[in-house]
Design a protein that fits this description.
The protein is mostly helical. It is built from five helices and no strands. The protein has one domain.
Length: 148
Amino acid sequence: MQLFQKFCCWIAKIVHLPEQIIRFLIIGGVNTVFAYCIYALSIFLGAHYTLAVLLSTVIGTCFSFKTMGTMVFDNPDNMLIFKFIAVYTGCYFLNVGILRLLTMVGVRNLYVAGITSMLLVSAVSFCLNKWVVFRKKDKIDPTCPNTR
């Protein structure tokens, strides 16, 4: 964990972004790839996109809670799972809505639509997780000035 934080701090200094954003991008990227693989596999197996998104959201939520809480937001409180589930439930409906909109405007490739939707929902997810679920006072790590 400490090596991961040092790596993120180093990247944050290079790209001039807050370390927490770097951690979110890395951990969120892993979580997103994991969830997208479940989504794509479900589509490949013939599931409707709403079921595919539901499966990827439920399984992804279980996978993401601890990684996001501990590695991104530095908050391992297990009682936050309920807020986390509420955020992911909202993200599920947002994801399905975006997919529906994309298919209505003519995007026929559900794999491309899925990636597009997940990228948009990921941005919303970061904000909601930071300010609603794992909210706590900002703390500044003296070893990395870009902690916020």
